Every structure is written in C-alpha cells, then in structure tokens.
Amino acid sequence: MNSVKTENNFPAFNDRKAFYKMLCKLVLPIVFQYFMSALVSASDAFMLGFLDQTSLSAVSLAGQVAFVYYLFINTFLTGAMVLGAQYWGKKE
Q1: CA 85 to each of CA 47, 81, 82, 90: distance values in angstroms, whole numbers, following the listed order
Q2: What is the span of the domain harbouring residue 48?
Q3: Could you read off the pLDDT of 7-45 as tens digits, one per residue?
C-alpha cells in the first residue's frame, strides 16, 4: 500500500483510490452478512407463504425477534470494539 506515514504513525491516505479500495475490503463483508440475514428471513416467509396465515405470521414474528437480537448484539460489539480500540491505542 502506497501511503505516507505521518508523525503519529497513521497512514495518510493521499490516494483516494487506495482509501476506497481499503474501505470496500472492510465494508463488503459486513454488507454481505446483513444481506444474507435478510435473505434468510425473506426465504422463510416465501417458503411458508403457501401455507396458512398462522405459519406466515409466526415466521414473520421470529424474523423480527431475530432482527432485534442482531441489533442488540451488533450494538454491544460495536461499543466493545470502540473501548478495545481506545485501550489498544493507549497501550494498556
């Protein structure tokens, strides 16, 4: 990676193309994971759509509960990541 080092040892991204390439490497797996999660919920609803309304409402309710669970876990891990990065930056 052709990046210039600054006085605090962080890479200065003077090249936008290199920055966007690194950003895509970081973001694409996250987007893919969320897409797959949504696809599982949608495929469950599609498969049970041919059955009665009770089955379809049950899978929709389970999808909403799973979404709230993923949201809680993601929020918790994001906060832990921020705290971990701060401690790592302080060398503690």
Answers
A1: 43, 6, 5, 9
A2: 4-90
A3: 545 455 567 777 778 878 888 888 888 888 888 878 887
